[in-house]
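Subject — a protein and its fold
Fields — amino acid sequence, structure tokens
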Amino acid sequence: RHCTDVICCVIFIVVILGYIALGIVAWVHGDPRKVIYPTDSYGQFCGQKDTLNENKTILFYFNILKCASPIVLINLQCPTTQLCVSKCPDRFATYIDVQASYRYKPDQWNYFRQFCKPGFNNPRKSVAQVLRDEDCPSMIIPSRPFLKRCFPDFSTKNGVLTVANQTTFKDGRGKTRNVTDLREAANGINNVLDARSVGVKIFEDYAISWYWILIGLFIAMIVSLLFLVLLRFTAGVLFWIFIFGVIGIIGYGIWHCYWEYDHLKGIPGSDLTVYDIGFQTDFRVYLQLRQTWLAFMIILCGVEVIIILMLIFLRNRIRIAIALLKEGSRAIGYIMSTLFYPIVTFILIAICISYWAVTAVFLATSGEPVYKVMANQTMCKYANLTCDPETFNTTNVTKLCPGAQCTFAFYGGESLYHKYIFIFQLANAFVFLWLVNFAIALGQCTLAGAFASYYWASRKPADIPLWPLFSSFGRAIRYHTGSLAFGALILAIVQLIRVILEYLDHKLKGTQNSFTRFLLCCLKCCFWCLEKFLKFINRNAYIMIAIYGKNFCTSAKDAFFLLMRNVVRVAVLDKVTDFLLFLGKILVAGGVGVLAFFFFTQRIPVFAQEAPTLNYYWVPLLTVIIGSYLVAHGFFSVYAMCVDTLFLCFCEDLERNDGSTAKPYFMSASLHRILGKKELSPKKA
């Protein structure tokens, strides 16, 4: 063996080093506190230690009516002054009422002014000037903190939306408004709050049932292992039971169609044709026609004949497929360590996801505070322009646009780094996809090398290497990093294009241009098909790399033409394998799920006292079912890779050898018996 695709290997290493450098730069410039802490109108964090806002952890909005929805409040900037406060208001009050009574009710003024700008303590200032300069809010509403922001304390009383049991409130500008004016914000907030309540209960369920969930997943692992072992003996039985079951069901369908056809004979109107009655929204009308049942019977007869003919002409290839499945089970039995390799792939992918997510957050939070002019007047020409809060009051903006303010908008900058943040985010996503695909490719090549060493052993298991999995992993890393990176690169490019197309489709959903939507739909479909094709080619190319040690392009070409020369066998093996593994996944997930259902609903008398009391029994139940399916998928993915590897080795064996003494077959005795004498020639592979 020698190193393959060295140039791509060097590029891959350079890209990884560049990715690390990008992460370091992002960590230097980024500040995750911008995500954790809300930011007031002055660009200061609420609740940040060693600042004036250390004890003010909640963000308060002067006029929440200016904010369209809570989504705008969380992600964008609402066009109203925002201050950090220590607690949310707990009562209704307006600035007009508080100012009028501040002399004989100073407590009300002291309470209200904590929601004014820091340092403001001039109740004699006219209401018009206070509201124009936004020194204080025109009103305060009973609120509660959510996501560290003050939202109105909505509740429903007898089906009526209320705030602190009131349906109306004064807006501080001389109007009495209904609470329903806040309905758009209320609906979203209450839904999220309800979800938070449900989330707390779900967390409680997990806290008291995690032990039993782990036991359920362990049972799923044991059942998956048993299924793989038993496939050596039951693969053929399961497949033929399913096939004859399908034939029997279709046969019953043919008989039922004939019975309905004969039963409708002589009934008035049953001899009409579909053309005579035209299109009907009630499809039961068609079931009253003899022609409908005749058509069903003809279609089912055609399907039945096709299945029977396929079984007759493809019986030998089906037997080969079943024999390969049994051989795969036997190979895994000799190399049990391969069943646990998916854990390595999972760890590598988890590292990639974590690094990508952290880097993306730091990139998104890079930059300095950017301030923009927030004007109450829609015709203000300075609205949304950048400004400097320190010199804003000395400009003409406040004169031309009364009430305008220079408030914090977002984090950004004008430097070269800040201008290319979007490009860096794309690069972050692209390298992430490349690394994930490389981790998957490394796993496939490692497993293929281990199972190939089993197939090409003259005496099984005596000639199998001592540590086949570790040896294969070492060969893949030492010699074929470049080839694996090359295959992963091609796939990552296609996946990035698909991500961009999905983004464009999301942005253009509201457009009325039907041609654009049609073009995007076609492109998405084409690249989806291309990705599926490339995954198929890459998978088989990695197998050939593990067997022969050639570069990626040569291996992909050899694998493709080898599969094309055995295209019927490929199709049969693929469908037989997919069916049996899907049956296994359903069996494992369904069996463990049924057991978990009876346990968590306390329907097993022996364990009734052990079962935890839950808010929602479906929480651990769904976790066990989904987890069992994923556990089974992890084990069965190894089995599928084993079968694919053995199949390519089998095809190569047929083409390279002829069963003679000089060129003996490496296949097992069961495969040799199925082939028979007529297929001992390499030309009839």
User: Anything to note?
Assistant: Residues 368-412 form one domain. The chain has 20 helices and 13 strands. The longest helix spans residues 183-263.
